[in-house]
Amino acid sequence: MDQTSQQIIDILKRTQRILIMPSAPADGDSLGPALALYHVLKKLGKEVTVVSCEPVPDAFQFLPTTSVIHEDFSPGNDFIVTIDTSKAKLSTIKTRLEQNKVNIIITPKTGQFSAREVSFSHGEAKYDIIITVDTGDLSQLGRFYEDNTGLFTQIPVINIDHHASNSAFGRINLIDIMASATTEMLIPLIEELEKQTGKKLFDEDIATLLLAGIITDTGSFQNANTTPRSFAAAAHLVRYGARQQEIIQHIFKTKRLSTLRLWGRILSNIKVDQKTHFVWATISHKDFADTESRYDETGGIIDELMTNAPGTEIVILLKERENGVISGSVRTTSDSIDASQLAGMFGGGGHVRAAGFKIVSGDLSTVEQLVVEKIKNFQRERLHLSGEESAAQQFGEQQIINSNTSKFEAVAESASILKTISAAEPSSTPEPAQSGPKKTIKKPALKKSTKKETSAQKARDAKTADVDHSTDVDRFTDTKPETDEVTFSDQLLRKAKKDDETTLEPDMIYKFEE
Ligand SMILES: [Mn+2]
């Protein structure tokens, strides 16, 4: 056992309150290791919380015990405002909510309060350690990281991952870039924990969760990252009772009906240019509406097109969104054609084999003509197809695609479209192939949780953490003011004992008795 793994085991044995955070996007190799660790640590008697900043995708709902995953969490870092009452005596504390702020109104019984009597501090954190799995960079934790950046320096982070790009952000970093999946790395760690604690930890669910990670990241052992070690790990997990068929069935063989309808539309709409080894398809906004499918349901199809169209070098899928934006996904079948260079011709970018671009306005067929023409020209030049031939071919095809002779109009129009091409947004541009390792993509800040969610979370916390006070709270629920507006008649005078922990309700006056 290497030193880092032993350090992790020592910490896991020592600590009690553990927060596990899988990365976004949520998939088999982020949810798998998170849930497997959850069960292992539960068996060791730990308090474990799993939080995912993204909902569990349909394809991974079958994973055992996804119901333990929370979509929100409170780090428990209470911000405490302390008022020194040695000089002035406290009469009441009022809270008054305003847009984006809360006023705490402190009324003295005797004397006067000033800034000198007020101090600030932080309450105790709710967790002893954080474990991130399959997370190359903290920004992959999305809003959890954006909203709580400080938390990740206050609480030690154990970072378990296999991405080459991992920024080693943890206090302890267990990174193995040779592992096909994060779950592959967990097998020796769990076995060592079994040995050192004398407890049987592996079971069929844990084995299934771990195998799901390997199957997801290797594309069911089809991708280039598949190693002898991945096969050995998978065999090992099957011996532990991993349900391989269940995983394959859900991840690879189950498609939503809407996805199948959408794929049908796309497949019937494929266009091929044999000479330039170029395949493309378009999907209109109407196609999405007719098939009742979402934009993200085109996910796997471009890769499917790529592997099933022999002799193809470039695949492009053009999607029309409802707001008139047309996004293009570009794939190339060899490293000799740089997909990001092709996407760059339309203001986008990405990786060598997978890239994307966005055209902010224009109608689908005109954008299609422009894109197809440019890609064909690129290939003609690359493949040294003679100009005459290409011109003749170009003309011939134009006749087929568009029987009227509006070609020159289209070209003229396309020139104006070029002006409207925007630099692609980083969140949408690189569309890495499903098979490749997840790249760190800085996501736009997600909307913070609504007030409702926050209070619901608080209510949950109160329920579990503070049973004694819950009766106290119940007494006041019936008479709680309905509106946010502060009217004195609505306000209830609530008695609060000194040194007693009281949950402040909005727009209430708390009276402190001696
Ligand atoms: Mn992974």
Overview of this protein structure:
This protein is of the alpha/beta class. It folds into 3 domains: 3-74 and 126-250, inorganic pyrophosphatase (n-terminal core); 79-122, no CATH class; 256-425 and 438-498, Diaminopimelate Epimerase, Chain A, domain 1. Helices cover 38% and strands 19% of the residues. It is built from 17 helices and 18 strands. It has helices spanning 3-14, 28-43, 143-147, 151-154, 182-197, 204-217, 228-239, 244-252, 257-268, 285-291, 301-308, 339-344, 364-382, 387-401, 407-420, 451-465, 467-477, and strands spanning 17-22, 47-51, 69-70, 79-83, 89-98, 101-110, 118-122, 129-133, 157-161, 172-175, 271-273, 278-283, 314-320, 326-332, 349-350, 354-359, 493-497, 509-513. The strands form 4 sheets. A 6-stranded parallel β-sheet has the order 3-2-1-8-9-10, with helices on one face. A hairpin with a 4-residue loop joins strand 11 and strand 12. The longest helix has 19 residues, at 364-382. The chain is globular and about 95 Å long. Residues 29, 134, 162, 181-182, 217 line the site of manganese (II) ion. Residues 29, 134, 162, 181-182, 217 line the site of manganese (II) ion (MN).
